[in-house]
Write a structure and sequence with these properties.
This protein is α/β, with parallel strands linked by helices. It has 2 domains: about 270 residues, Acetylglutamate kinase-like (Carbamate kinase, 3-Layer(aba) Sandwich), CATH 3.40.1160.10; about 160 residues, VC0802-like (2-Layer Sandwich). It is built from 11 helices and 27 strands. The strands form 6 sheets. Strands 6-9-5-4-12-16-17-15 form an 8-stranded mixed β-sheet, sandwiched between helices. Strands 1-2-3-8-7-10-11 form a 7-stranded mixed β-sheet. The chain has a 4-stranded antiparallel β-sheet with strand order 19-24-26-25, sandwiched between helices.
């Protein structure tokens, strides 16, 4: 991400900031997840926490998700009417959840004797592209928020939502409230951004699945970004990338306990490689296209069609060409499977591929640590563990700080605990290649 005039570019989108000359000193942006505002008593608790922050720092913008499982209930209602509700109408429906939260939270703050104003995503100046259910932020006009802050009010913003250039309500996809919070922190030049949730920080693995998971006091932006991409559900990947590019101090904390959380910061490369986290993403599916003609432009044709519909692709494997055809496999998020299949099946016919198959009974296991790809034996330790458990590897992907494997979903949780205990509990330090 970088400045170009008044434009902030990222790998994902461009955020245009409408600046004023007023410096937003001592501004804190806080985000509260659905469990944090899941009841009236919890909303009152959040209101008091926000007020304490205002007393200490002077200005607060609170970004809020829908209450508890209200989003799930709205989805259920939609699917009770039709199996395939339109994405535009789903955005209209789901955006109402955050509107309830921000109104109630603002009332709770005012009941404590402080001025507050609730703003929807559109009222907050958040403009997105046209991709419903997974929109990207194009523009943030901060004028309204700054005016409210300068008037002494606490600003409560609906997370997860914005408005398209066609004036339709849009939503940012799962975890979109995190992205709203960090994007606003960047746009407003906030001093820090705090993410309040039902856990007290970032753990070496999901504590709901691994009983021996350890809480981390600090983790690097890059390591957190990989964990977020790999299925850790505490933070959305886009929010971490924004925080890293702007160097925004980011901390994940508990809504229910007053104690330090996990700080996400920039750290220098270390000489020893340590596995910092082990993740399991069960929210994926694998799509395979068999006997794809081996000629230039075919891969572009396949994946540009998916990109045009804003369907992110993760791991991709193409086998060695035989008889001028290849088999191609890739993974997508489970909630994008149906749309991805409809596109790929159409394209497969057009390019004369033999067939398309899918498997939604898979998961992705990953180990994460800065410099892990340059270690001597990180992969061998991982693969040895999978061999000992009798687990077959379907796909492999690596980067500088992670190794990921696609395996059968039925084995996922057992493998997760085994790998975690081997690398984390035993504090395995892996020598780097000389």
């Amino acid at each position: 991400m970088f400045y170009n005039g008044n434009c902030l570019y990222t790998d994902y989108y461009c955020v245009f900031i409408a600046y004023t000359e007023v410096e937003m000193n001592k501004l804190t942006v806080q985000k509260y997840g659905g469990t944090s505002v899941g009841s009236i008593e919890r909303i009152r608790r959040v209101a008091r926490k926000i007020i304490e922050t205002k007393e200490e720092f002077g200005q607060v913008v609170a970004v809020v998700s829908a209450m508890g499982d209200s989003t799930d209930r709205l989805v259920e209602m939609a699917h009770s009417i039709t199996d395939k509700p339109s994405e535009r109408e789903m955005d209209m429906l789901l955006s109402t959840g955050e509107m309830v939260s921000i109104s109630l939270l603002s009332m709770a703050i005012e009941a404590e004797g402080y001025e507050a104003v609730s703003l929807t995503g559109p009222q907050s100046g958040i403009i997105t592209d046209l991709h419903h259910k997974n929109a990207r932020i194009l523009d943030i006009d901060t004028k309204r928020i700054k005016n409210e802050l300068e008037s002494g009010r606490i600003v409560v913003v609906a997370g997860f939502q914005g408005i398209t250039e066609k004036r339709d309500i849009s939503t940012l996809g799962r975890g979109g409230s995190d992205t709203t919070a960090v994007a606003l922190a960047a746009a407003l030049k906030a001093e820090k951004c705090e993410i309040y949730t039902d856990v007290d920080g970032i753990y070496t693995s999901d504590p709901r699945k691994v009983k021996n998971a350890k809480k981390l006091d600090v983790i690097s932006y890059d390591e957190m970004l990989e964990l977020a991409f790999l299925g850790a559900q505490v933070l959305h990947p886009r929010s971490v990338e924004l925080a890293r590019k702007f160097n925004i101090p980011l901390e994940v904390k508990s809504s229910f306990e007053d104690k330090p959380g996990t700080r996400i910061v920039e750290v220098e490369q270390v000489e020893k490689v340590v596995v910092r986290g082990v993740s399991l993403d069960e929210d994926i599916a694998k799509i395979s296209i068999m006997e794809v003609p081996d000629r230039p432009g075919i891969a572009f044709r396949l994946f540009s069609e998916l990109a045009g519909e804003s369907i992110p692709i993760d791991m991709i494997i193409q086998n060695i060409s035989r008889d001028n055809v290849n088999d191609v496999s890739f993974t997508v998020k489970r909630d994008r499977l149906d749309k991805a299949l409809s596109i790929i099946r159409r394209v497969a016919v057009e390019i004369d591929a033999r067939e398309v198959s899918f498997d939604d009974a898979v998961c992705k296991l990953s180990i994460v640590g800065t410099g892990i790809a340059n270690s001597v034996d990180a992969a061998s330790n991982l693969f040895e563990s999978l061999f000992e458990l009798g687990v077959n590897i379907q796909m492999i992907s690596t980067s500088d700080i992670k190794i990921s494997c696609i395996i059968d979903k039925a084995s996922g949780k057992e493998v997760l605990s085994h790998i975690h205990d081997r690398f984390i509990l035993n504090d395995i330090i892996i020598e780097k290649k000389k």
